[in-house]
Design brief:
The complex is a heterodimer.
Chain A: H1 7-22, E1 27-32, H2 39-46, H3 53-66, H4 77-81, H5 88-99, H6 107-112, H7 119-143, H8 157-187, H9 196-206, H10 210-216, H11 222-248, H12 253-278
Chain B: E1 2-7, E2 17-19, H1 50-69, H2 76-79, H3 84-96, H4 101-104, H5 112-132, H6 139-148, H7 151-165, H8 170-195, H9 204-223
Antiparallel strand pairs in B: 1-2
Classes of the chains: A mainly alpha, B mainly alpha.
Chain lengths: 303, 229
């Protein structure tokens, strides 16, 4: 990384100055690798000599820090590229932050910092869809192992059902919540507002704790499944609650409690619904007896 | 006098100061490659026998298969991309996944169209993902690489069907598991060898993970294929 003490950089500056001295008509164009040069360097050697340079750079800096980088129309590729401007360690930190909630650490403030990404939510949802479908398949297979009537089927239909459920949870509920927060914001001036992408981001990352839980559900012990559901619900629920608490704090307490309760209930509904639908209970059920009509005898069907 | 400074410090430190004066015209020669229908001899390929044309394409596809089977960092796969190979592999895999018991009773096996959709839709999504993350590879090059790297999994599917001819016992399941796992690892490794170079270094894992997931799902479809009795 270049620094102000790098003699090489200074040499550049001197040469440019010399050249300019030599020929006053010279037009200087400099193409810089902007990451490396500190702002002072850019000011000195980079842009064409301009009196209100300071204002330009001040605007640039403010613009870069505010996060509203470019007003690109949403139907261009560049618009979506700004949501993938993320690195491996960022994703790792965000996932860890969503799995280990800390009171006082608002996920959006601490981890997102005005740079929500779509990579995390999308791929976590996709992984969860396939994890549920595959784990459900394996657990059904294990539960029914040894039963004579059972024929193994890879239930691919369930992938599409799982996908619909999880992606609608991850998109429509943030949409509703965002609209709700906007509406409340009109009534009660709140210091904290979240953009739609940030809410989608929180919801997406909060689902990441379910991936290990779902894999754990393969083991056909009911107590283990319920334990893991409770733990997962607590973790993801508290991440969501800690995130939305600052936004709702100035509101009427009844509204705040209602909204938080709604968030938690929907979360629980998703978890329990998935468990019930995709994972069959390991219960001691006598196999279905097909009634064979015998002359003179009545047979009972047991199920 | 036009003074152009190019201050990119990292790799091109030696070229940091390039000045070109105005009275030296910048010269060059932009030549367009000769149109594809004319060979070096100048003969048009329109007149050649159809067998020649087909064989030439088949040879190109075959050479790419060899590149996938022995993945080295060569740019042949990227430079001369084509989508014939992926189409061939996709159709073969989808056909091999038919004829299962689950399929005949419509009880949950993948239909022909479903396999197609999963492979092509999955490849498109992964390509979009890598482009959004700032990859330098083009759209069709990426589709080409992902499609060709399904070759080990297709071979594994053929092997699985052969193993299943001998009955579906625990031993056959173990053999199939090993074969599918090995080919899944091979596919992921091969495609990563081609795709990883096109990404900035701090995002490589972000690009590799979806590829891993894609081949994992295909491997799962192959492993859970249940033959009809």
């Amino acid at each position: 990384m270049a620094s102000t003490n790098d003699p090489f950089q200074f040499k550049e500056f001197d040469e440019a100055g010399d050249l300019l001295d030599a020929n006053r008509d010279a037009v200087t164009i400099s193409i810089d690798d902007e990451d490396l040069k500190p702002q002072k360097q850019r000011k000195a050697a980079g842009f064409p000599p301009d009196e209100d340079e300071d204002d330009h750079l001040g605007d640039d800096k403010a613009e870069l820090l505010s996060g509203e980088k470019k007003n690109v129309p949403f139907w261009t590729f560049e618009y979506y590229q700004q949501f993938f401007d993320i690195e491996t360690h960022n994703v790792r930190e965000r996932i860890i932050g969503s799995v280990l909630p800390w009171p006082g650490k608002n996920f959006i403030n601490v981890y997102l910092r005005r740079k929500p990404d779509l990579y995390g939510p999308f791929w976590i949802c996709t992984t969860l869809v396939f994890a549920i479908a595959i784990s459900g398949n394996i657990s059904n297979f294990l539960v029914n192992l040894g039963k004579p009537n059972y024929k193994y089927t890879p239930e691919f239909r369930k992938v599409s059902i799982a996908a619909t459920a999880i992606f609608s949870y991850a998109w429509f509920i943030p949409l509703g919540l965002w609209g709700l927060l906007l509406w409340r914001n009109n009534k009660v001036m709140s210091l904290v507002t979240y953009s739609f992408m940030e809410i989608v981001c929180v919801y997406g990352y909060s689902l990441s704790v379910y991936i290990p839980a779902v894999v754990l559900w393969i083991v056909p012990f009911e107590w283990l499944r319920w334990c893991s559901i409770v733990v997962a619900l607590c973790l993801s629920g508290s991440v969501l609650a800690l995130t939305f608490l600052p936004a709702l704090r100035e509101d009427h307490p009844k509204v705040m409690i209602a909204i938080l309760l709604g968030i938690e209930l929907l979360n629980a509904l998703l978890a329990i619904g998935c468990k019930t639908y995709f994972f069959s209970k390991p219960e001691n059920v006598p196999p279905v007896v097909i009634p064979v009509p015998r002359a003179g005898n009545s047979t009972k069907m047991s199920s | 006098l036009v003074v152009i400074h190019i201050n990119i410090v990292r790799p091109f430190a030696g070229l940091s100061d390039v000045s070109i004066s105005e009275d030296v015209p910048v010269e060059g020669d932009i030549s367009v490659p000769v149109a594809a229908s004319v060979t070096e001899d100048g003969f048009s390929t329109l007149d050649e026998p159809v067998k020649e044309t087909v064989l030439r394409d088949l040879r190109a596809v075959g050479s790419k298969f060899v590149h996938v089977l022995y993945p080295r960092r060569s740019s042949a796969l990227l430079r001369d991309w084509d989508l014939w190979g992926p189409l061939l592999l996709c159709v073969t895999l989808a056909l091999l996944l038919q004829g299962g018991e689950a399929d005949s009773e419509d009880r949950g096996g993948p239909q022909f169209a479903e396999v197609f959709v999963i492979i092509w839709f999955g490849s498109i999504i992964i390509t979009l993902n890598s482009k959004l993350l700032g990859g330098t590879i083009s759209f069709f090059q990426s589709l080409c690489v992902l499609g060709y790297c399904i070759l080990p999994l297709t071979v594994a599917m053929a092997v699985c069907r052969l193993v299943l001819l001998g009955g579906s016992s625990t031993v056959s399941f173990a053999v199939r598991l090993v074969v599918v796992s090995a080919s899944f690892g091979w596919s992921t490794f091969a495609s990563t060898a081609f795709l990883a170079d096109s990404q900035p270094p701090n995002r490589k894992a972000l690009v590799v993970y979806p590829v891993f997931l894609f081949y994992f799902v295909i491997g799962w479809m192959i492993l859970t294929f249940a033959p009809s009795q």
